[in-house]
Amino acid sequence: xxxxxxxxxxxxxxxxxxxxxxxxxxxxxxxxxxxxxxxxxxxxxxxxxxxxxxxxxxxxxxxxxxxxxxxxxxxxxxxxxxxxxxxxxxxxxxxxxxxxxxxxxxxxxxxxxxxxxxxxxxxxxxxxxxxxxxxxxxxxxxxxxxxxxxxxxxxxxxxxxxxxxxxxxxxxxxxxxxxxxxxxxxxxxxxxxxxxxxxxxxxxxxxxxxxxxxxxxxxxxxxxxxxxxxxxxxxxxxxxxxxxxxxxxxxxxxxxxxxxxxxxxxxxxxxxxxxxxxxxxxxxxxxxxxxxxxxxxxxxxxxxxxxxxxxxxxxxxxxxxxxxxxxxxxxxxxxxxxxxxxxxxxxxxxxxxxxxxxxxxxxxxxxxxxxxxxxxxxxxxxxxxxxxxxxxxxxxxxxxxxxxxxxxxxxxxxxxxxxxxxxxxxxxxx
Length: 430
Known about the structure:
Shape: globular
Low-confidence stretches: none
Mean pLDDT: 96
Strand content: 5-15%
Number of strands: 13
């Protein structure tokens, strides 16, 4: 093991040995190099002549660049063309941490890590897998889950995915979640929660979240090492009263020394910048302090550096400009209201009694999506093709559960969308 990795591990063992045991073999061995090229480059920062940086500069010391690209950017070249740190730009890390506290009032007075910047959430989840999952480990997810989890965890890291039922009687199936937790192999238990859920568009109620938190706490109190990954990709997009508006991260971040909660989030969906590819990894654990979090951040940044070097500098700079803008909150509210109206239109449209002959809506209250369950006997894949070829309509089929992204359908077209599904179902049934 590299001595720099061992230095970090010593701190983790001293602070929380259970946390050290949660790390994967890769996580234990990874470090952010303070010596070698990076260390020598840091030593030379600010010198009149600096021949350490692996980038080209103009004679005036500014980043070398093409005028044809520069003229497209209304931003300083220094904020666009150079590399960003592997940890992410310091100002956006600080700002995003402040925003996490603002969005999650229950975190007040609780110390969490400084977020580490990733190449959006898919990469963030992959880095979490790198840090905490060994081949053969199990990850618990709901039975309705984002298909990319298979690629990220099963294919890349040799993980077994186990599932609990997301719904029972149109509510969160807490009993299924508790049973799945209890039947997992004792020791390290990795749980991935995604709210608002993709594909269901569901966030638990305030009471349901309390039940989830209690179930996790009970497992921790038994001595299990609980690694809880919060995929908060659609955070903030809650459309009904009584639904928990804070991340489950807020209620777990300081709950127990055996619970490490990892918040994976970013502006991709929250701020409608899908192509910017900026995400964050943030840690919370009871009695976590700066020394412990510094080590976790260093290991995470080391994994980022060894994987992609760093996330896009230009994207981080543009986002910082947006976050600091006086119009940011108003713009965000405007886009939220558009999605909220589409959500209401879906609710209104689904009141049509004739639809119930062929499909029913699964519970939905948040996010970009909702799902309908097809009546037995209707083939979802045949329906998908019929909708494409005859009704000029695209949906996602998942074993006869249809995912509908109302986020990408104009409000005025939502009634037609469901009418098309109805008529296609009727045609197939005939």
